[in-house]
Amino acid sequence: MSWLHSVLFLFLVFRWCIAVESSSTEVTDDGAPMEISEREALYSTIQGFVGDSWNGSDLYPDPCGWTPIQGVSCDIYDDLWYVTELTLGLVHENSLSCAASLVIKPQLFKLNHLKSLSFVNCFKSSLTISKEDWISLGSNLESLEFRSNPGLIGELPETIGSLTSLKSLVVLENGFDGKLPTSLCNLSSLKRLVLAGNLFTGKIPDCFNGFKDLLILDLSRNSFSGTLPSSIGEMVSLLKLDLSNNQLEGKLPQGVGCLKNLTLLDVRNNRISGGFSQNVEKIRSLTDLVLSGNPMDIDDMMGIKWENMGNLVVLDLSKMGLRGDIPYGLTKLKRLRFLGLNDNELTGTVPSKELETLPCLGALYIHGNNLTGELRFSTKFYEKMGTRFKASKNPNLCQYDMVSGSSNYVPPLGVKPCKMKKAEGDLVTANLWDLARVPVGSSGRSEADAAARQCLSPFILVGLPAYYVIASS
C-alpha cells in the first residue's frame, strides 16, 4: 500500500510542476518561451502610453515571436524571451503613437532586462517624471532617450544618475528645466550625452574628468550660465563639443587645447570672451569651428595662425566684433567649404584671388563690414557660389562689372559698381550706374559723358541687368 501511495504522490507532483510551468511561461512558435509576467508587464506598459482601448493579448499574442510589436525588441536569456528594447512614439508609420493623456505605469520598471528605452514625441500634456523606480533599470539599461516631448517638465530626476551602465543619454527638445542633477557625474560610462533644446539653467557640473570614453557632448540651446568647467579638457576621446546658444561667459578653459581628437567645436551665441588663441590653434583635428556671436578679445582672436588648421571645413567667425584685415592665413585652408566673416568691423581689401583658389569653398559671407577696394572674383567663381556669396553693407567696396551668358551667373547683390577712369586720364571719372541710367541725348548729358558712355556699349546693347536695380535699392 505504501508503494501505491508513493507512485500516486509522484504523479501529483509531476502534474503540479506542469501546471506551474504552463502558468508562468508560454511557448512561442519558434520554440522559445516567454514569462507571462514579462509579457503582461509589456502589455500594461504600452497600454499606459497608447490608451486603454489597446489590447495587446489579442493584437500581439506573441510579441517576441511571430506577431512582433513595432518598437519592441527581445532577446533570449536562460532560454526565455525578455524585452530588451522599447521605443514609444510615432517613429515609423506603423509605430505605436502615444495618446494625448498617458500614464507611466510601474510595470515599465519591471522590464529589468531593458537595454534601450526611448520616448519620441509622446508627452504633449505637462508631466513631471517621478524620481522613483529608475534604480531597478540601473544594471542593464545602456540607452535612454527623451526626444521632442514638450510636455516633460520639471527637473531631470536625480535617480537618472543611478543608471551607471548608460552609454547614451539623449534628452533632446523637451520641457525640462532647472539645474542638472549632480548625479549625472556618476554616468562615467557614457559615450554620448545630449541635453540640447531644453530649459536647463545654472552652471555646467565640473565633473567630466571621469568621462574618458565620451565621444559626443551636446548641451546646446539651453540657459546654462557661468564659466566653462576646467574638466571639459579631460575628455580625451571627445569628438564633438556643442555648447552653442547658452549664456556661458569667461574664457575657454586651457584644457580645451588638449582635446586632440575633437572635430567639432561650436560655442556660438554665448558670452565667451577669449582663450581661443591658446586653445583652438592646438586642435589640429578640427573640421567644424563655430565661434560666432561671442564678444571676443580682438588681439586674442586675430592672433590665431589659421594656416596651421588645415583640416577646417566649416569656419564661422561672424558677429564677433573683429577688426583689422581679413587674416591671410584663411586663404591657406584648402579644405574649407564655408567661411563666415560677416557682421564684424573688418577693414582693408578682400583677397579675392587667393580666396578663389580654395578648391572646396562653396559659401563665403563677408557682408556687414568696412571692407574697401575692388572685388576681383571671376564669373566662374560667382557661378559656383550663387547666392552663397554675400558682400553687401560694405560702403566702400565695389565690383567690376562682368558680362556672362551663363544662367548660373549671380553677381553680388548690394555691391556698387566700381568707378572707371578714362583711358586718356582727362580727369573725368564715371560711375557705371550713373552713366547707364541716363539716356543718350538727355539735356543733362554732357559731351564728355557721352564719350565715356561708349565704354558701356556692351551693357547698353543688352540692356541694364535687373540686379543693378536690386543692388541700388
From TrEMBL:
Keyword Cell membrane part of the UniProt annotation: yes
Domain of life: Eukaryota
Any matching Pfam family: LRR_8
Sorted UniProt keywords: Cell membrane, Leucine-rich repeat, Membrane, Repeat, Signal
Example of a GO cellular component annotation carried by this entry: plasma membrane
Key word Repeat present: yes
Signal peptide segment: 1-19
GO biological process terms, semicolon-separated: response to fungus
Major subcellular location class: membrane
SUPFAM superfamilies: L domain-like
Compartment list: Cell membrane
Protein name: Piriformospora indica-insensitive protein 2
Species the sequence originates in: Brassica carinata (Ethiopian mustard)
